[in-house]
Specification:
Elements (H helix, E strand, L loop, with lengths): L3 E6 L4 E6 L4 E3 L21 H15 L1 H4 L3 H9 L8 E4 H15 L1
Antiparallel strand pairs: 1-2, 1-4, 2-3
């Protein structure tokens, strides 16, 4: 089953989970790879919190090596366009479609 990434806005922090069809877990922040936002994930604009979220989603889905050259573009294309005030869901299919289009354009 395909993964579903889901963000929920809280009063102090924001929760981002990934469901693989069997389990739901917290999405690791990947600050050990790049530390854009020690205060956590964000979405709805093009800043450091959205960069951390973009990196974390792509690392989880396609791995660190493939994620590093793409995550800033992914941030602007997919994460910055999410509603800043609302909860959201992104499916593995949506994300892989974007990755495939980016890789086709780069070739």
């Amino acid at each position: 089953m395909a993964k579903i990434y889901e963000g929920k806005r809280g009063m102090v922090s924001h929760l981002v989970t990934v469901n693989d069809g069997k389990d739901t877990k917290m999405l690791p922040d990947c600050t050990s790879i790049r530390n854009h936002s020690p205060t956590g994930f964000e979405w709805g604009y093009g800043g450091s919190g959205p960069a951390q979220l973009a990196l974390a989603i792509l690392v989880d889905l396609i791995g660190e090596e493939k994620a590093l050259p793409l995550y800033q573009k992914f941030k602007f294309a997919m994460i910055a366009t999410l509603s800043r005030s609302d909860d959201w869901k992104l499916t593995e299919e949506e994300i892989r479609r974007w990755v495939d289009e980016e890789n086709t354009e780069a070739a």
